[in-house]
From TrEMBL, chains A, B:
Belongs to the heme-containing dehydratase family. Its cofactor is heme b. Its EC number is 4.99.1.7. The keyword Iron applies. GO terms for molecular function: lyase activity; metal ion binding. The gene is oxd. Coiled coil: none annotated. The keyword Iron-sulfur does not apply. It comes from Bradyrhizobium ivorense. It comes from the Bacteria. This is Phenylacetaldoxime dehydratase.
Length: 349, 349
């Protein structure tokens, strides 16, 4: 049993963990371990938004960003997923990860100019959402150590079994900064117009979660149980956050279906959401009826199957400083991502 | 909105609350407020244990303790409840409350001698379980401010709406000592034989919860929903704690039905349980399947009924110092109360 906080990020505490030192979690979980030399990771979401069937322009945009990813200083890992949003638009999001800010910086300007630097064209919207957190500001969690997803693909290894999980508050306790900082949000998001682009300037301690499930290994009975008993409840919670999340501090939520290299749906999905604070995410997860239902359904599922469960679960959670964020939208409808968090009248840059 | 911790018990913190200062609970709750002059409360459980139908000796014992309660320096409030335990014995427990340790001390020795001072007789067991916590070591919570139960009957008043509730960790945050102390348990319970009596000497930071529900005001539809949808799930959780609680730190659990002055069941019940630590109680409440089901059923019930719900809920939770505890058993079976927490071979006093 080891701490989720790697030893080189352990500091003298001014804030306590939520569990006693002898706490023993009831089942195993694992976290991604970076080499100590990694001080920052970058998570960059590049979105294409369109209505109806994908056009040649959509395919071209997707090919364009994939080519950029494959170029010099491109991400160490990327994946792609899509979903249909509350306004009926399809959003295809290519998510890319770096663990070297210098490489990302060398790569980003050109990619950004290509992606959001022009004018809206061909009926498609484009957006860029980037966090570049210090490693003390993020955490991961995996139900199995043998298949990394998302930022964890960049990691040096998976940990052994960690202590800080399977209790409310574990998410916070896994973030190294929680040793000394309450990570309270400061300020309100605002929009800044820059020609045809709109940037959103959010605030200190904005929170991002990507929380995924992979049912590709499940067999008949388990698969049926996941698809019939768990997935609908999960979807209901995701829809609530998408449609009514703002009132409880969820600026935006996307329930994404991962696609393969040819754009075909895989048996992996994830919810990706932007939150005013880690505390707001904690409150929803712990006590909102929609997540209590998800938690209940997941618990029943895992209790029924026990260690034989083939469903894989993971997440990554970041609490970003104000200067670790970048949001830019071009030709997107006004409830896209962090645009949904700001008044519709915007300042000019 | 006020803190659950009364102003005269607020201290410089070395430990943080689990919620930010701007946390707003989604529904109101209330706590008992004692006069600042009250520095300690006493909760004394007097049990009669028998198998089969109650005999004249049972009635006599119950009348005897009631007469003691009515005598000089008797409790400010008491109530009575019964349950059938895992060994098939009926236990009638008279629970008495004081807010003046001098009065309790003046009263207790005689009552104790009468209750457990003799030898087992007439086929009945008797037990005494007492906590006498400093007011910094206990908290209450009520869903409505207009009907006190348990120790709260002694209070000067109910609070206004308090902030620290409706999140996991609220129970701890309402206990004044949590401002500066993790309240970790130290040591293991042991039994000491004193003639025919067995005393249990537990350990620092033992935890007691009495958690009650009152459905006497509910009308047809709500009553049916409580009795059909909530109560069976609650009972299942109570049975789990009673039968299998020790492995998760619950030394003993009693799911009690409150009785009236004539011994007839009322429409009130409570769970009363002894825990190794507040942390163990937190873990069960937050993540054990049996309590997750209770929480889910209660949440669905309250979501369906909203503010019109007539069900009343309350609890009182104490984390007692080692010298604030007293457990004594005479002629009881060996899984009675804290006897279930100790090896069956006992030291002599």
């Amino acid at each position: 049993m080891e701490s989720a906080i790697p030893s080189h990020l352990q500091t003298a505490r001014s804030r306590h963990r939520r569990v006693p030192d002898d706490y023993a979690p009831p089942y195993p979980s694992f976290v991604a371990r970076h080499k100590p030399a990694v001080t920052r990771v970058i998570m960059a979401y590049f979105g294409v938004q369109y209505h109806g069937e994908p056009t040649a322009a959509v395919a071209e945009a997707l090919a364009q960003i994939a080519a950029r990813f494959a170029g010099d200083n491109g991400p160490s890992h990327w994946d792609r997923a899509h979903y249909v949003d509350q306004a009926g638009f399809t959003n295809v999001v290519s998510v890319s990860y770096w663990d070297d800010a210098a490489r990302f910086d060398a790569w980003f300007d050109g990619a950004r100019e290509t992606w959001t630097g022009g004018t809206p064209a061909d009926g498609i919207g484009r957006f860029i959402e980037v966090l570049r957190p210090d490693v003390a500001r993020y955490e991961t969690l995996f139900s199995s150590p043998d298949r990394a997803e998302g930022v964890a693909v960049l990691a040096d290894a998976m940990s052994g079994e960690v202590q800080e999980h399977a209790y409310w508050g574990g998410m916070r306790d896994r973030i190294p900064l929680s040793q000394t900082d309450a990570m309270a949000p400061r300020g309100e998001p605002r929009a800044v117009r820059d020609g045809a682009r709109i940037r959103v300037v959010a605030h200190d301690n904005l929170c991002l979660i990507r929380s995924g499930q992979d049912w590709s290994d499940t067999e008949a009975a388990e698969r049926k149980m996941y698809l019939d008993d768990v997935e609908p409840v999960l979807r209901e919670g995701m829809d609530f956050l998408r449609d009514d999340g703002v009132a409880i501090g969820c600026y935006a939520n996307r329930y994404m279906q991962v696609v393969d290299g040819a754009g075909r749906p895989t048996e992996k999905s994830y919810g990706q959401s932007w939150w005013k604070s880690l505390a707001a995410l904690e409150r929803w997860a712990e006590s909102h009826p929609t997540h209590v239902k998800i938690f209940g359904a997941a618990m029943k599922y895992l209790m029924t199957l026990g260690p034989s469960a083939k469903l894989r679960l993971y997440h990554e959670v970041t609490v970003a400083a104000a200067d670790e964020q970048f949001f830019e939208y071009l030709g997107c409808h006004d409830r896209t991502g962090m645009l949904g968090a700001v008044p519709l009248t915007v300042d000019s840059a």
